[in-house]
């Protein structure tokens, strides 16, 4: 059988059942747009190595053949509903599953973050176009409600899958950045040795006890029991002190603040904006050992970060006040070479 039939040479085509209509028939626009969306999803699927998501997209593509066939039979004697709510539920379950894996989004995403998400975003817009034609078809035909829900939910599902790949890429880059900033023992070994010597000379347990003691005095002044943690430049604990009646959860939070400040070489409060969509560290706040709210500060000797302090137990302002005071105490030790 030849690919070409010549039956459409005069600008008409066949619907399901053989009825002929013009190629500009709204039904043709609708199922033609579904065909475009199917091809776009196929292009995206060809770039995806995640077997589970590849299988989901393949299932969607097979369903889209049924969507197109149903649209191509509207108004004919051969019309029958082909899409049921089970297919809608499949998309909703997919969306819910992927939404649990990504951070809350508070703004628009510029398409093109990854090859996979870029192709999926094109497919999403193709689905949206098809949905507009289907919505117009309701003025002339009785459109299956489950079909309309499916196409509407499909654009959401494709969007969720696209954002999943963006988020995975962001996490990968953030982890690489984190490793680079921390140093992995193979690069910058000379610099790490220098910091190690500085830490042992100045930021040792004795100094950590002094800083912590001063922070406890400050905490008592404001009437808030806190947890104070001092770590070295690699984020390893030098000293962690919990005041009586401080919250147990503050032990973990104080450590995370100190670790984050040391690993990312930045006050934790300064990381909040960059962890939002579009920021350098977007998604990093979902790493288990990272926090992006205030209360953690690096400890420096000149331009060298030799450790960090983290404080938790009060409000953001109270934690910040006490931890920043700890930095000032450490700077005095460095400046005067003695504890006052």
TrEMBL record:
For the keyword Ligase, the answer is no
* SUPFAM superfamilies, per the entry: Cobalamin adenosyltransferase-like (SSF89028), GlcG-like (SSF143744)
Q: Which reaction is recorded as catalysed by this protein?
A: 2 cob(II)alamin + reduced [electron-transfer flavoprotein] + 2 ATP = 2 adenosylcob(III)alamin + 2 triphosphate + oxidized [electron-transfer flavoprotein] + 3 H(+); 2 cob(II)yrinate a,c diamide + reduced [electron-transfer flavoprotein] + 2 ATP = 2 adenosylcob(III)yrinate a,c-diamide + 2 triphosphate + oxidized [electron-transfer flavoprotein] + 3 H(+)
Q: Name one GO molecular function term.
A: corrinoid adenosyltransferase activity
Q: What is its EC number?
A: 2.5.1.17
Q: Which domain of life is it from?
A: Bacteria
Record-annotated Cobalamin adenosyltransferase-like domain positions: 3-164
Q: Pathway it acts in?
A: Cofactor biosynthesis; adenosylcobalamin biosynthesis; adenosylcobalamin from cob(II)yrinate a,c-diamide: step 2/7
Identify the InterPro entries for this entry: CblAdoTrfase-like, CblAdoTrfase-like_sf, PduO-typ, PduO/GlcC-like, PduO/GlcC-like_sf
UniProtKB keywords: ATP-binding, Cobalamin biosynthesis, Nucleotide-binding, Transferase
Q: Is ATP-binding a UniProt keyword of this protein?
A: yes
Provide the family line. Answer: Belongs to the Cob(I)alamin adenosyltransferase family.
Q: Which NCBIfam families match?
A: PduO_Nterm
* Stated name of the protein: Corrinoid adenosyltransferase
